[in-house]
Design goal:
Oligomer: single chain
Mean pLDDT: 86
CATH architecture of the largest domain: 3-Layer(aba) Sandwich
Largest sheet: 6 strands, mixed
Low-confidence stretches: 1-6, 8-12
Distance between the termini: 67 Å
Shape: elongated
Strand content: 15-25%
CATH class of the largest domain: Alpha Beta
Number of domains: 3
Number of strands: 10
Order of helices and strands: HHHHEHEHEHEHEHEHEHEHEHHE
Length: 352
């Protein structure tokens, strides 16, 4: 009896090969290769035959082996705000780590810094990218019409785009980051629990409320505070635009005109600027302050009692997830949803 193509020498079932696909589909191996790699010049009827053979044989392509044979590399670019402090430093550190960690997977990573308050600069950078130079881009930028349109055109040119930390509407759930509405709601719950019997106002500080993560955090925070803690009133958002001078001015002016502030929520990813401004105006010792992201600054503020809680996400997981998702998008595959879910973590002085 002749051994079948799907059986190994010892009688065990072997993984179907492209040779098996070609035999079942009745086409050449070259045609199978063109279909698997999405190349043009193959009739739809032939493509359907190959896909039917894939389904029949349970063929799973060994992408790593194919990339190694072709000496293919994945070229991924991270676009990050140039204004940033310790949290951005952590992100950059983990991007550098990824360059080493994903070497065996033929992945190269690079970084470009942009002015997050200039959507035209971001759009111009995106417009300069092409499939000849980059396979995928992880973008951390506020959502504006200019950026949304530039991302859409980038995808049309064949470059995969992945919103990073701050989502963009057009990508739906194809992005990397925490559920920011839930993160804001968590901050609102903590604030209300820390202030069960103290009526007063809450100062809300952001780099820019144009950033979708800030908008969603503010929405989640307001929903919980307004529905569950009516004795607390959230004031309009204060935007620092990453400027320490502006942070000092708007926070001191707010406190001068609002003497009954009992809590502060810093919803941007960088807390050092707002915290420095708060220290300068010497707010009352019993004021409750909640911030985002674990950095040396927020760790020290937890230890000395300035901060009551930090809501954070793992920057290493963010970067690794972005690389895995971009690679899957490039290969036309999906990732494991549970593996890529970024958890919302709460850090207090007691569990630091």
């Amino acid at each position: 009896m002749n051994k079948s193509a799907s059986q190994s020498d010892d009688g065990a079932l072997a993984r179907p090969t492209t040779k098996d696909l070609a035999r079942v589909a009745g086409v050449s191996r070259a045609t199978v290769d063109r279909v698997l790699n999405g190349r043009e010049g193959v009739k739809k009827r032939t493509v359907d035959k190959v896909h039917a053979a894939i389904e029949q044989l349970g063929f799973v392509r060994n992408i790593a082996a194919a990339n190694l044979a072709k000496s293919r590399t994945y070229r991924f670019l991270f676009i990050l705000p140039q204004s940033g402090d310790q949290f951005h430093g952590e992100i950059l550190r983990h991007i550098n780590e990824a360059q080493t960690a994903f070497t065996a997977d033929m992945v190269t990573t690079s970084v470009r810094l942009v002015d997050q308050n200039d959507p035209f600069e971001i759009a111009a950078l995106l417009a300069s990218l092409s499939p000849e130079t980059v396979d995928g881009v992880a973008i951390m930028a506020p959502e504006t019409p200019q950026v949304r349109d530039a991302i859409h055109r980038l995808q049309e040119r064949g470059v995969h785009a992945l919103p990073f930390i701050s989502n963009q509407t057009l990508n739906g759930d194809k992005w990397v980051g925490i559920d920011n509405h839930a993160a804001g709601a968590t901050a609102g719950t903590l604030m209300g629990r820390f202030l069960p019997n103290r009526a007063g106002k809450l100062a809300i500080i952001a780099d820019s409320i144009l950033s979708r993560d800030s908008l969603e955090r503010r929405s989640g925070f307001d929903h919980v505070v307004n529905s569950e803690f009516p004795h607390l009133t959230a004031l309009p958002s204060l935007e620092t635009y990453g400027s320490q001078v502006r942070a000092n001015h708007i926070i001191s002016e707010t406190y001068r005109h609002q003497k009954d502030i009992v809590g502060v929520y810093i919803l941007s990813s960088e807390a050092r600027g707002p915290l420095s401004a708060i220290w300068n105006v010497a707010l009352p010792q019993n004021i409750v302050i909640i911030a985002h992201e674990r950095t040396p600054c927020t760790e020290n503020a937890l230890v000395d009692g300035t901060l009551d809680a930090v809501i954070t996400q793992d920057p290493g997981h963010l970067v690794r997830s972005a690389v895995r998702k971009l690679r899957a998008m490039t290969d036309g595959r999906s990732t494991l949803r549970s593996q890529e879910k970024i958890r919302i973590e709460i850090i207090l002085k007691t569990n630091l």
